[in-house]
Amino acid sequence: MKLTLHHINLSTDNVARMDAFYRDVLGLARETGGLPTLEKEKGYAGDVAFVTDGAVQTHIAQKDVQAGFATRQIVNPVSQGHIAYRTDDLTAFKAHLDAQGIPYSDWGNTAVTGWHQIFFYDPDGNVIEVHQVDN
C-alpha cells in the first residue's frame, strides 16, 4: 500500500481569481493532462481549475459547504480544501484506517469518474483524501 502526494485542493469563492494568482504570481502551469472527469450531477457541481508545478497538482475548487449534505457524507472536502494522496491499494488502506480506529467517508466515484475516493480528518481537523484510480 504505497501513498504518493497527488494534489492539494484549495476551496475558494472565486476560482478565476485564485487560478490567475497561482499561475501569474507563482508561475504554475495550467494542468492539461491526467485531469479527473468531474461528476457534477452527483452532489458537487462547483467550478474547478487545475494548475501544476510539473509534479504535484493544485485543484482550485469552488467552495461548497453543502456538498457533504448533498452526498450524504460526513466529511466535506470542498468546504475548506484538503490534501490528497494516491494509493495503489485503497482496500488495504481502508483496513489500515479501520485498525487505527479512524473513521472516513467513502465517496466512491461520486465526485470523480474513475477515482474511488475516501476522506477523513487528521487530529487538527484538516481533511485528507486518499484515492485509487479504477483499472
Describe the structure.
This protein is α+β, with helices and mostly antiparallel strands. It has one domain (3-133): 2,3-Dihydroxybiphenyl 1,2-Dioxygenase, domain 1. The protein has helices at 15-24, 67-71, 90-100; strands at residues 3-12, 29-30, 37-38, 48-52, 57-62, 82-87, 105-108, 112-113, 115-121, 127-133. An eight-stranded mixed sheet has the order 2-4-5-1-6-10-9-7.
What topology emerges from the helices and strands here?
Layout lengths: L2 E10 L2 H10 L4 E2 L6 E2 L9 E5 L4 E6 L4 H5 L10 E6 L2 H11 L4 E4 L3 E2 L1 E7 L5 E7 L2
Parallel strand pairs: 1-5, 6-10
Antiparallel strand pairs: 1-6, 2-4, 3-8, 4-5, 7-9, 9-10
Protein name: VOC family protein
InterPro entries: Glyas_Bleomycin-R_OHBP_Dase, Glyas_Fos-R_dOase_dom, GlyoxalaseI/FosfomycinResist, VOC_core
Structure described in brief:
This protein has 135 residues and is of the alpha+beta class.
